[in-house]
Design a protein that fits this description.
With about 325 residues, this protein is of the alpha/beta class. The chain contains eleven helices and 14 strands. The chain binds iron/sulfur cluster (SF4).
Length: about 325
């Protein structure tokens, strides 16, 4: 399998009144075609900023400072009388007009709160027709409606509900609509950013199963961003653990769960309930993530790490091959 996405040495910063916060700090990772990569870590660790960087929609005052985001463009993108040909392309070098075409058509992003992304004045059907015809004007309204019905049907929404408005749907149904809109243009990559966080666990499980089926049906590659490692256990092929904007460990899901190498990964997993081990004692991680406007010397995790040594306080660990086969940034392995 080849890589659909390769991120290299990405740096993203927020210029705040308190100083510059480096939310993504030289992250490099690859996402293979037709796989799901989970991005995990505590709130504020930079995983959403990393996800949004891919579509170049980092919220103000964020800025992509350096790096490469190479995406394998699937079909020709035409914009302003120019074109981007299929093949690996650094998205950070594309003009904004080309990115506008690429968003939705090739890379879709599902945000956490569907209400802020849906127009309360438009029916669900109209949302679909607008997005499909904007990117593909030759599609008739009838064809766009048919496509909407097919996608929504896969998500358990009956065609007769397509003329309803967003407020007439429950939170779970609205999120299904957002997922459907994300898939309306048949993207190659779907980035789902905490897509079920505000929902109850039963609806969450149903929606994640529906996403998994759609992933198969549409041959999607996916990035699933969540603080919930339990969700990734079931739905990710590989997991990247992010802390203070840095990649701490990357491994396939089974390896990460069975044999986590980084002390932060180990601590996160200690906080995940396991139905197979009802007696498991859940632990929490003492302390809080560092203030990114005042980066620490050495390993960013050292104030919370039970295995920290003097070296950890002064020297930043680089990513190396971990004994379990993934990669890890920790002095215990270098
Ligand atoms: Fe802990 Fe040191 Fe490894 Fe950082 S480098 S995780 S402080 S042992």
């Amino acid at each position: 399998m080849s890589d659909l996405l390769s991120i290299r040495d990405l740096i993203v910063e927020y210029r705040t009144r308190r100083g510059v916060a480096r939310a993504v700090d030289r992250v490099s990772l690859d996402v293979e075609e037709n796989t799901t990569l989970g991005l995990a870590g505590e709130s504020g660790c930079g995983k959403s900023t990393l996800g949004r960087s891919i579509i170049r929609l980092v919220p103000y005052p964020g800025k992509i400072v350096e790096g490469e985001i190479v995406f394998d463009v699937g079909k020709r993108i035409e914009y302003d009388g120019q074109a981007v040909e299929p093949g690996p392309t650094d998205l950070l070098k594309l003009p904004e007009e080309a990115m506008r075409r690429l968003r939705g058509e090739q890379v879709a992003y599902i945000f956490q709160d569907p209400m802020t992304s849906l127009n309360p004045m438009m029916s669900i059907k109209d949302h679909f027709v607008e997005i499909i015809r904007e990117h593909s004007p030759e599609t008739t309204e009838e064809e766009a409606t048919e496509r909407a019905a097919e996608i929504l049907g896969s998500l358990g929404i009956l065609p007769e509900r397509m003329t309803d408005y967003p407020h007439q749907f429950s939170g779970g149904m609205r999120q299904r609509v957002m997922i459907g809109l994300g898939l309306a243009l048949k993207p190659r990559l779907l980035i789902a950013d905490e897509p079920t966080t505000s929902l109850d666990v039963i609806v969450e499980a149903q929606i994640l199963d529906e996403i998994a089926k759609l992933k198969e049906k549409f041959n999607l590659t996916m990035i699933l961003i969540t603080h919930n490692l339990g969700v990734l256990a079931q739905h990710a092929d590989n997991i990247a653990i992010i802390y203070a904007g840095r990649l701490m460990e990357l491994a396939d899901t089974e390896t990460l769960f069975e044999n986590p190498q980084h002390p932060y990964s180990q601590a996160l997993l200690q906080a995940v309930p396991d139905v197979r081990k009802p007696d498991k004692k859940l632990a929490w991680i003492p302390g809080a993530p560092p203030d990114l406007t005042e980066p620490l010397p050495g390993c960013m995790y050292h104030p919370r790490c039970p295995q920290a040594t003097e070296r950890c306080r002064t020297e930043q660990p680089m990513l190396t091959k971990s004994p379990s086969g993934g990669i890890v940034a920790c002095h215990l392995y270098s």
